[in-house]
Write a structure and sequence with these properties.
Blueprint: H1 2-10, H2 39-45, H3 79-84, E1 90-100, E2 104-114, E3 121-125, H4 136-142, H5 152-161, E4 165-173, H6 177-186, E5 188-189, E6 192-193, E7 199-202, H7 206-215, H8 220-231, E8 241-246, H9 249-257, E9 265-268, E10 273-276, E11 285-286, H10 287-292, H11 294-297, H12 322-325
């Protein structure tokens, strides 16, 4: 066996006694082992190659370089790409899918909403506004407990029935989008399921969202930036934000930043008491009380509004609402005019 390994590995000749006898009639002799060629001899016998210069063809002409394609990351789509989506008025489901050797086909769904250019939007915070507290409300929902403000689903549904669009805004990280959307979809009170709308979350990692919310306590930085981006989608002469509901001073600042009137910038405390920025120290309401005044605070929006071409506008004129027109102050009367 060692002789055979040496013959295979190093080409040493096999002993005569080791060579087996050829079968009768085979003729010839045992095939000789081919001689091993040194690397120097092999290189000398190779055909000479034609030298080629990088960036040129064999005939010497330069090879044209392909321009490098540059891509820019963006979270917005231009109008042409939006038109290719084929969105329908209202809620649309968009699916992002990819394949992996380990996990197979994966799919993530998102919702895209198509609204009119003159839509009226009511913004609502989630943590502490729909729930009674920022943390306990979601922990209670995970274990099947109801820790939501009583009557919030009915109020938001009545606002929707009057022609307004609901939008939910939270400074949570984007990784919580699925859980937040599932929580809002399953919220039911007295047989009424909460109306659905866009759920706007921070496009940041969880660590960044927690740092902004817990450490520096400035969630309004994301909320103001998000609301400004949505405001830019509408015409410059139309402010879509009609009212806002929050539970902190930062929510009030965020809504006021995009032009929500102080009389419709509402804050809900843990006792389910509601007050506007103008009645903070004078008047508080309950959710049931606001629900009774829903038609006065949120007048029904006419279905047929003015188009950009200038058709008739039957939309409620907010300047002549009771809270704005009759509450301007007292009339100045000179003493000489009194009898």
């Amino acid at each position: 066996m060692p002789h055979l390994l040496g013959h295979v590995a190093f080409g040493t000749p096999l002993p005569t006694s080791y060579l087996p006898s050829l079968p009768p009639g085979a003729g010839g002799a045992w095939p000789a082992t081919p001689a091993r060629t040194s690397p120097e001899d092999a290189a000398a016998t190779r055909a000479p190659r034609t030298p080629r210069v990088s960036g040129s063809r064999a005939n010497g002409s330069p090879v044209p370089r392909r321009p490098k394609r540059k891509f820019r990351k963006s979270v917005t789509l231009d109008p042409d790409k939006v038109a290719q989506l084929g969105l329908k008025p209202g809620k649309n489901v968009i699916a992002f899918s990819f394949s992996s050797r380990v996990w197979g086909r994966q799919e993530v769904q998102a919702h895209a909403y198509l609204w009119d250019w003159n839509a009226k939007i009511v913004v609502s915070d989630v943590d502490g506004t729909i729930t009674k507290s920022d943390l306990r409300g979601h922990v209670a929902a995970m274990v099947g407990k109801d820790w939501n403000h009583e009557g919030v689903a009915q109020l938001y549904n009545n606002i929707r029935d009057n022609g307004y669009q609901l939008m939910f805004l939270s400074s949570r990280a984007i990784s919580h989008s699925k859980g937040t959307r599932r929580y809002l979809e399953k919220l039911t009170q007295d047989g009424e399921t909460l109306t659905q709308g866009p759920v706007m979350l921070a496009p940041d990692p969880l660590s960044t969202a927690l740092y902004r919310e817990v450490v520096v306590r400035r969630p309004q930085e994301f909320k103001m930036r998000c609301l400004r981006t949505i405001r830019e989608l509408f015409p410059a002469d139309w402010n879509p934000f009609y009212a806002g509901f929050g539970n902190r001073e930062t929510d009030t600042v965020s809504y006021a930043h995009v032009g929500v009137p102080a009389g419709r910038n509402f804050t809900i405390n843990p006792k389910s008491e509601v007050y506007a920025a103008t009645t903070r120290h004078t008047k508080t309401y309950s959710l049931a009380g606001i629900n009774e005044l829903c038609d006065e605070m949120f007048p029904p929006v006419a279905r047929h509004r003015r188009t950009r071409s200038g058709a008739a506008d039957l939309t409620h004129c907010d300047a002549f609402a009771d809270s704005n027109y009759w509450g301007k102050g007292f009339m100045n009367i000179d003493d000489s005019e009194l009898p």
